[in-house]
Design goal:
The chain has 370 residues and is of the alpha+beta class. The protein has 4 domains: 84 residues, Orthogonal Bundle (Arc Repressor Mutant, subunit A); 107 residues, D-Maltodextrin-Binding Protein, domain 2, CATH 3.40.190; 99 residues, Periplasmic binding protein-like II (D-Maltodextrin-Binding Protein, domain 2), CATH 3.40.190.10; 47 residues, no CATH class. It has 16 helices and 15 strands. Helix 7 packs across helix 12. The longest helix has 18 residues. The protein is elongated and about 75 Å long. The two termini are 26 Å apart. The N terminus and C terminus are likely disordered.
Amino acid sequence: MDRPLESNHIRSRVIPSDVFPAWVFPPVLLDRFSSSQPAVSLQIQALERELACTLFERRGPQIRLTQAGQALLEIALPLVDGIDSIGEDFASELGQLDSGEINIAAGESTILYLLPEPVKAFAEAYPGIRIKLHNVTGQDGMAMLRADNADFAVGSMLEVPDDVVYHPIVNYKTMLITPLGHLLAQKKPGRLRLKDIGPYGLILPPRHLATWRIVDTVFRQHNVNYSVTLEAGGWEVIKKYVELGLGISIVTDICLTGSEDVSKVSLQRFFPDRSYGVVVRKKKYLSAAIRQFLEILAPGIIDVFSPETGHEQNRHHQIKLYNQTTLCTFQTPQRTLNMRWFPCFTSVTVVQEYFSARQRQQFKFYRVAC
């Protein structure tokens, strides 16, 4: 695209329309709108009068959302996120997705073993999209999702909080790895018992990570004692120390590439398969770049996520703002684009303003119901 869409400019020009007033957004979003506090406060007061309800509790300089205000905020946030991605979504429709950024939170094992091929495929298909991989633990990844510092997370989850959606995409088995020639390596999987493992020192990831919790739970369930002689961060480190004969370990076979000098015995009899999947904050708007990456990572996953994240629901909500009428339709040489992709534009003229002269020549603008 010759000229990128400026989302802040769109907000200031389009959102204060009769169709979708700017004062639907509370002051906590002030920095995202580049508006002044007094102006937004007046708009909030006008909205409170129109809705006949209180959106904020005001106690001196402190402002707190009421229950009604929180409900309105949950509706507003995805719409704001959608505005941020208007240019990106439009470019995707034209097959011109050549700018944008994706922030992915993931642990070391996911980054090393699960993401390389999808990242490579996406980078080759969309070289203009920046990918940021944040190597974080599960708790830190959740914090990034909630703060909107990560678009989504990829990893394994034992417990799924109420404010996120987790969709598993692949399962891995649990394996015992030992040095070559170890006594336990000579046992067949069907004859290996947990109490056979107990006397040998385990090398495990740090206690605060999920692997330790899983191992501890399974051994406790079977009333078997075990000992940890070495804590090490990262599967590559653990495999190296097992190769050196410093202990044995219980790992998820996501980390086993076949190049390790270790013996492997399945522990599927005792440990459930470990799922790895995608975690998205509920009501998170999924930009075109995010959707394309997720489709490469797990084809069909968008069909699963859209209702849960509110992505499709938000589109329907935006259409209802216009009494379910199509405002404008754009016809391109490839396809016809419905106005639902531009929910905050209220006239053909406003839409045309944000595209270059060359781009405008590629479209036929039809005024359907404005």
